[in-house]
Amino acid sequence: MTTHIPYYKTKLTGGFWKLKQDLNTAHTIPAVYERFKETGRIITLDFETPWPQGQEPHIYWLSDVVKWLEGAADTLAIGQGDNELREKCAWIVEQIAKYQAEDGYFNNHFQRVAPEKRWTDWNLHELYCAGHLFEAAVAWKEATGEDTLLNVSSKFVDYIERVFVTEKSAAFQTPGHEEIELALIKLHAATGDEKYLRLARYFVDTRGTPGTIPNVKAVQAHKPLREQTEAEGHAVRAGYIYSAMADLARIDGDESLAKACRALFANISTRRMSITGGIGSSAAKGEAFTFDYDLPNINTYNETCAAISLAMFARRMSALEPDSRYGDVAELCLYNGILAGLSLDGEKFFYECPLEIHPRLKERNERFPITQRVAVFSCSCCPPNLNRVLGSITDYLYTKDADTLYIHHFMDSETAFDWNGKAVSVKQVTDYPWDDHVAFVFKGMAGRRIAVRRPGWSDNCSLTAKTKLTNGYYYFNITSDEETIQYDMNVEVKLMSAHTNVWEDIGRAAVQRGPVVYCLEAIDNGDNLRALAVTPDAKFSLKPDDRLGLCLETAGWRVKVPADGKLYAPYNEQWAEQTLRFIPYYAFANRGESEMSVFVRVK
Amino acid sequence: MTTHIPYYKTKLTGGFWKLKQDLNTAHTIPAVYERFKETGRIITLDFETPWPQGQEPHIYWLSDVVKWLEGAADTLAIGQGDNELREKCAWIVEQIAKYQAEDGYFNNHFQRVAPEKRWTDWNLHELYCAGHLFEAAVAWKEATGEDTLLNVSSKFVDYIERVFVTEKSAAFQTPGHEEIELALIKLHAATGDEKYLRLARYFVDTRGTPGTIPNVKAVQAHKPLREQTEAEGHAVRAGYIYSAMADLARIDGDESLAKACRALFANISTRRMSITGGIGSSAAKGEAFTFDYDLPNINTYNETCAAISLAMFARRMSALEPDSRYGDVAELCLYNGILAGLSLDGEKFFYECPLEIHPRLKERNERFPITQRVAVFSCSCCPPNLNRVLGSITDYLYTKDADTLYIHHFMDSETAFDWNGKAVSVKQVTDYPWDDHVAFVFKGMAGRRIAVRRPGWSDNCSLTAKTKLTNGYYYFNITSDEETIQYDMNVEVKLMSAHTNVWEDIGRAAVQRGPVVYCLEAIDNGDNLRALAVTPDAKFSLKPDDRLGLCLETAGWRVKVPADGKLYAPYNEQWAEQTLRFIPYYAFANRGESEMSVFVRVK
After folding, report:
1. Band of the pLDDT at B274, cuts 50, 70, 90?
2. DSSP assignment, residue A56?
C-alpha cells in the first residue's frame, strides 16, 4: 500500500516554502493565538473560569482552537516554535483532558452553554469539532510524544461509536459538517487501532442514506457517497469528505470509493474550479459549488479553507494512484488559492479569494468579497487552517510504496525516513517555483525506483536519468548509494484561457508561470484594469521583488478614454502602449485597497 | 413661453406607435384592470364593501388604480376604448368622489386600514398617491369634459396646502416619494388655477432643506434641489422631481432651477444611463443611481418606471429649451428602456430591464432580475405606467412658442391645434423608426417657423427646405398655406461602444439602428452569447419580422469550444463563422426563457 511520508520527516532548507513556514512560526501562529485569546476562544476552555462578558463559547470555537493547536504542534514537530508556544499548547491540552466529560464527550460550547442540545441537531458542528480535536491529538503526539490528547480522543471515539453506531441515540446519524472521517483515519495511522477506521467507514458508508440527516446537496448527503459524481454543496465539507473517501479507497483497496473519488475530482478540476484552485463559487448558495463552468471572477466565494480542502483531497488522490493531475491541482491550490488567504506580513486573512476586485462595487450595497485582509473573523476557520497547512506543508512532498518513492512536489528540503527497515534520505536543491530546476540527491536507495511528477504546465521536462513517462510521472531507477539527478522543467510564462463555457473569461487570459498564477493590480497599472490588454504573443520579462515574489512585465496596451467623453459613441477603439506589471496572485491586496484582476483581455 | 401640444390633439394614423397604442387599448389596459380586480385593488375603493380575505388595501394601491385610470382616460381622450372601459373608469371616479373625506383627504389604505397613520410617516407614499390621483383627474377631464375628479383634486389640494403649508401639522414637510409636484403643475395647466403652482413650488423649494424629511440621497433630499448636480437615489422619484423642476423652470423662467436641471440631465445622460435609456443600476441600493459609469448589464435594475420618468424629464427639458440631446434621450427610453417592460402580446411586464440575461445564474441564489415577463407584480407601478405612456405617447411630438413649432419626434400622425387663434395642422407620413424618411405637411402655418430635431444618431440629415442647424434642431420657415417638407435622416446600423469607464463593456459594442437598440438572444444564435463576436466593419442586412420588428443579420463569429475540453489551457482562441441575428431590444424575452445580450464582443 502506498503511504505518505509525513511532514515531520522533512526539513525545509531554503526557498519559497521555508519563508512561508518561518512566517507562520514567527507571525501567523502568534497572531492567530492572540486573536483567539482576545475573543475568548482560549479562556473558555477553562470550564472553571466564567467566560468574559460577550464571550460565551460558540459551537465551533473548539474547532478553531484545536486547529490552531494542530498547526502549533506541527510547528513544534518540525523543530520550530519556542517554549512559550509549547506551554500555550500544553495549557490547551490540559484543559481538554481536565474537562472531558466522564462519558468521553468534549466541547466547550455544548458542555458549558447548552448541555441539553448535545447530539440534537445535525448542523451544530459537534462531530466536526471532535474531528479537529482528533487531528490535533495526532499532531500533539508527533510534536511531544505525549499521549494525553490521544487518550482523550480514544475515549471520545468510543463514546461517539456507542452513540452513533451501537445505540443510535443521537438525533442524527452522520455529521452535518464532515471532517471527523479523515481525522479518524489519521488516528488510525498514528495508533494502528482499527476502531478508528471502523467508525470512519461507518460515517462514509451511511452518508446520503435515508434518514441519517436531511438529504441535501448542501452537505453531500443527497445520495450515498459512492454514487456521487458531481461536486455539490458546501465546498469545504466536500473537500474534507472526499479526502476521507480517497484515504479509505487507498487503505481498503475500495474500488467503488476510488471510482467516486475519480469522478468527483474530474468534475471539480475540469468544470468547477477557478484557475487559482479556488472552489465553491457562490456565497449565497451556501459557500457552495453551483453548476459546471459557473466560475465568476468578482463575486465568487472561493474560501481559503475550500482550496485547502481541495489540496488535501488532491494529495490523497496522489497517494491512491500516481497521476500528475492530482499534484497539478494541489500545486495550484498551494501557490494560489490557499496562499492568497494570508497577507505577506502573515497576520491578516481573507476568507474569500476573488479573482477580480473593483473596490467601488461596495457602493452598490450588494454582497461582494471584502477587498482587504483582516486580522480576525467571527467565523475563524481559515486562519488556523493556514497555520496547519504551513506547519505541515512538507506532507505534500512524498509518498512511497514497497519499491517506489513518488515525488509529487518541489521544495528545497532534506527528508530522512525508514524504508522497509533501511534509513534513506532524499534532498531537493531548488529555488522552485521561481527556478525550474531541481537537483535531487538520493541516499541509500540503490535498487529502488523513483517517480517524479511532470507538472501539467511544462511542455518539456528533462531528467539526467533514463526515464519512462506514465500518467504524468517520470519513472527511473536508482543504481548507486548516493545518486544525484538533475530535473529541468523548462518553465515559461503562459497566457492561459478558460474553457469557452466560462463565459466571463472569453477573450481574456490569465498569466501563469509554472504553478504561480499572476494578477494585475491598479496600484501598478492604473485604474480600470479591464481597459488593459496583452497580445497573444506577449513576451514577459522577470522582475524579482523581495516582498511580492517574482513579478512579470510585458509590453501591453490600454484602450484610450474616448476624447469626446461621450457615454455612447460609434465603436472606434483606440489603443495606447503601456507596460503591464503582473504580480503573483497570492500577493494581491498587500499594498492598500486596489482594483485587481487575474484575467486580462487579449487583443 | 413654450408649451406642449397635448397628446389628444394628435391622432396616430399608422406605423410603429399606432400598433403599440392599439395594443395598449385592446390588451394592456384590460389586462392591467383584470389583474387589479383580481388582487382587490379595484373593489377596495368601495369603502362600504368589506375587502376580500387577504386584500387589505395597501398604501400604494390607490396610485396603481388611478395610474391605470389615467391611462384609460388617455385612451378615451384619443377616441379609443369602448363604453365598458368608460364605465369602469366612471365607477372608480364615483368611488373616489363618494368616499373623499370631509376635509378633502382620499386614500383607501389610510382611510380604511390605518386612519391613525395619516401624515405620520414621510415614506408611506400618501402625497405620491395624491399626485397620481391629480394626474388622473386631468386625464379624466380631457376624456370626458367631466369635472368630478378635478373637484376632488381641488378640495384635496386645499387640504394638503393647509396641512403642509399653513399648519405644518404633518410629521414631515415634503413628500418621501415625489410625484405630486408634477401633478400639481398639470392641474394648473388644466385649470389655470395658481394655487396648484404655488404648492408645487413649495414642495420643490423646501425639498432638501433641514427638518423636512431625512436628509438622504435615496429620495433626493440630501440638499436643496437647486444645488443638486448629480442624479442620486431612487431613480423613479428622481425622474419625477426633475420633471417638476423642468416644468417650473419653464413656467416661472426660473434660471436656478433650469441650471440644476441641465446639470442633472447631463449627469444622467453622460454618466448614469444604460444605452437603452434605463436608469437606476442597483436594486440593493434602493432601485437607485449608484456612481458614475456603474452600468452593469446583468445585475442592473433599470426599472421600467425609471425609464418612463427619464423620458418625462427629457420631454420637459425639450420644452424648456430646444436641444436635441433631450429628444435623443427621450427616444432611447421610448423605443428601448420603456417598451422592453411590455411583452409583445401586451399583457406581461418587466419591472427590471437588464441588458444581459444568463438564465442559469438563478441557481446561484443571488438576486438577479427575473428572466421572463409576468402578468402581475405585488408592487405594480410599472404596468399602469405603461398604460398611460402609450395612451399619451403623442405628448412627445410637439411644443410651440409664439412663432415656432418644435418637432421633437417622428410618428405617422395628424395633429390639429389652435395657434394664437388660428386653426393649424401638421401631418407626419413615415414608417419611422424602420424607415428614415418623414414627409411633413404643414397647413395654415405660412409665416411660422419650424424646428425639427436632428437625431444624435444621424450623421447626415437632409431637408427639402433651407435650414439653419442650432443645438441639434433644423430651423426653417413656412411660406405657404400648405407646405410639404421631406426629411431624410439616413439611418445606418451602427456599432456603439460605451465609455471606457463602463469597464464591463470594453471591447464590446451594442448594435443600434436609429433609436432602436438591438440584442442577441440564444434562441436565434445558440447558447453562450459571450462566445459571439462581430467585426468592427460588420455589414448588416435588414430582416423584417412581423412580430419582433425589423431584425438584423450579419456575418459574425463564434469562439470554438476547445477541442480537448480542458478547463484551463494555453491561450489559443479559434473562431468559426456564424451568422448573427439581432432583434430589437424591446422584443427580448418573448419566445421563452433565453440568454440575451445587448453588448457583443468586437473582434
Report:
1. very high
2. P
Contacts with A531 (C-beta within 8 Å, 6 or more apart), sequence order:
A558, A559, B500, B503, B506
- The span from the CA of B296 to the CA of B503, in Å, is 9
Q: How far apart are CA A55 and CA A428, in angstroms?
A: 47
User: Which are the contacts of A384, defined by CB distance < 8 A and separation ≥ 6?
Assistant: A32, A36, A64, A65, A67, A68, A70, A71
**C-alpha–C-alpha distance, residues A53 and A47, integer Å:** 15
Task: Select the residue from A491, A518, A571 to test the B interface by mutation, using most B Cβ atoms within 10 A.
Answer: A571
pLDDT band per the 50, 70, 90 thresholds, residue B380: confident
Write out pLDDT tens, residues A443-463: 999 999 999 999 999 998 999
Q: pLDDT-derived band of residue A418, with 50, 70 and 90 as boundaries?
A: very high
Angle between helices B235-252 and B180-191 (to 10 degrees): 40
Cross-strand bridge partners of residue B556 = B578
- Disruptive mutation site among B567, B573, B596, B600 for chain A (greatest number of A CBs within 10 Å): B567
Neighbouring C-alpha atoms within 13 Å toward the C-beta of B591: 15
For B28-68, what is each residue's pLDDT tens digit? 999 999 999 999 999 999 999 999 999 999 999 999 999 99
Stretch A112-139: mean pLDDT: 97
C-alpha cell belonging to residue A48: 472553571
Q: How is chain B split into domains, by residue range?
A: 15-396, 399-488, 493-602
Chain B residue with minimal CA distance to A363?
A: B290
CATH class for the domain made up of B15-396: mainly alpha
**Calpha distance B412→B430 (Å, rounded):** 5
Query: What is each CA distance from A92 to A48, A68, A72, in whole angstroms?
Result: 14, 10, 11
Residue reference for cell 420644452: B319
A447 at interface of B, judged by CB pairs closer than 8 A: no
* CA atoms of B248 and A525, how far apart (whole Å): 48
* Separation of alpha carbons B344 and B548, rounded Å: 8
Catalytic residue among B232, B287, B303, B347: B287
8 Å CB contact of A565 and B494: no
The conformation of residue A392, written as its DSSP 8-state character, comes to T
Q: Catalytic annotation on A261?
A: no
Residue A559's CB is within 10 A of a number of other CB atoms, namely 21
First-to-final CA distance of chain A? 51
Number of neighbours of residue A280 by Cβ within 10 angstroms: 32
Nearest C-alpha neighbor of A300 from the set A350, A258, A255, A225: A350
Q: How many CA atoms lie within 13 A of A284 on its CB side?
A: 13
ipTM of the complex: 0.96
Q: What are A529-561's pLDDT values in tens digits?
A: 999 999 999 999 999 999 999 999 999 999 999
Cα separation, B198 vs B138, in Å, equals 18
Task: End-to-end CA distance of chain B: give it in Å, rounded.
Answer: 51
C-alpha–C-alpha distance, residues A328 and B534, integer Å: 37
User: pLDDT higher for B406 or A376?
Assistant: B406
Residue type, position A34, single letter: E
Residue B321 annotated to the active site: no
* Nearest residue of chain A to residue B294 (CA atoms): A361
Whether the model pTM is above 0.80? yes
Cβ neighbours of residue B537 closer than 8 Å, sequence gap 6 or more: none
CATH code for the structural domain at A399-488: 2.60.420
